Amino acid sequence: MSFSIIGLIQVLFHAVPLLVAFRITWMHYTWRREGSKNVKQHVEETTKIVSNILFLLIFMTVYLSLDTFGYLKTIAKDVEDTKRSSEEILSKTGPSSLDSCICVNGTNGIYSEVEKVFQLRPQPLQKLQLDILGFTMSSTWPMLEPWMQKHYLNSLTINIFYLDEKYLESSPSFDPGWHTFVVENKKIIEAFKKKNKSYLQGNKVEINLIPYSHLPGVHGFRFNDGNYFVSFGSWDDSGKNIRPPNQDVFLILKSSNISLYPQSMRKLFDNWLTAAINDSKSIKN
Question: Residue 110 CA to chain centroid, in angstroms?
């Protein structure tokens, strides 16, 4: 409707000078034919017509302005409704931006995110399982004592997957020192279990050490409540050895986020964890 009014305004705007020109020509013709007798009457008629047209132009311009203002208000309302809907969707599915779902500090920073799962347990006595798909356990064993002090070790099973010592010895893809790390870290964890045997049994805590023997393409943490912390193995600058995970980026996949991307990453992690479990069976045999 606004476009038709604009067109009519344009027609009337161009019609005013044409009408005035026509009336002046007509008055000149009348004056030559009849003298000045009817000129005054023609001037009054012309003034009246032009005034009416100008009034109509002003009215239509004001109407158009109000109509445009109303249209802009409608657009603003639609934008606000869209924003509100987006916020409601985000509150249910989690943020769409990956920046807020990434930990760039590797294993040095991811444990603070892992601890939030313990802190937010709705039922402290509800059984929780944590699968740690790791490398040499160098970042895991230092957490056990603090977790016990914070009472996180309660109704909990921790499965710690680590690179098998013999595999590390035979593979050219790892620093030779990693073999020593695994041997020493296993001793530390077994000593912790022995020292705190009564506490662990009394609080229904089980800690299992499980070896696997393949490149750690995917590593991280999986809780059985749907919280995942997923990372990917990376090579050092030489391209010959796997780099320590303290520099790897972790994806934080909260259990409340069930959109396509987190679900795909969970399936990927499960796939690599299953491979580690199958590996462990062959190693034990």
Answer: 18
Residues 241, 163 contacting (CB under 8 angstroms): no
CB within 8 Å of 26: residues ≥ 6 apart: 42
CA distances for 272 relative to 29, 104, 136, 214, 240, angstroms: 100, 22, 17, 10, 22
Q: 39, 30 in Cβ contact below 8 A?
A: yes
Q: Which residues of 222-261 are buried (b: 16+ CB within 10 A; e: fewer)?
A: bbeebbbbbbbbeeeeeeebbbbbeebebbbbbbebeeee
Other beta carbons within 10 angstroms of residue 152's beta carbon come to: 21
Q: What is the pTM of this model?
A: 0.66
How do residues 54-91 score in pLDDT, each as one tens digit?
656 665 665 555 555 555 567 666 667 766 665 665 55
Q: Where are the domains of the chain?
A: 2-93, 101-284
* 101-284 classified as CATH 3.30.870.10: yes
In DSSP notation, 13-44 reads: HHHHHHHHHHHHHHHHHHHHHHTTTTHHHHHH
Please tell me the distance from the alpha carbon of residue 75 to that of residue 246, in angstroms, as a whole number.
50
pLDDT digits (tens, 9 = 90+) for 108-164: 889 999 999 999 887 767 889 999 999 999 999 999 999 999 999 999 999 999 999
Tokens of 201: 């049994």
Q: What share of the chain is helix, strand, coil (3-state, %, to 5)?
A: 60, 15, 25
Kind and range of the H or E run holding 197: helix 197-202
Task: Give the pLDDT confidence score for residue 39 in this predicted structure.
Answer: 53
Which residue in the block uniquely carries the two structure tokens 């000078």? 17
CB 1 within 8 A of CB 67: yes
Fill in the amino acid letter for 42. Answer: H
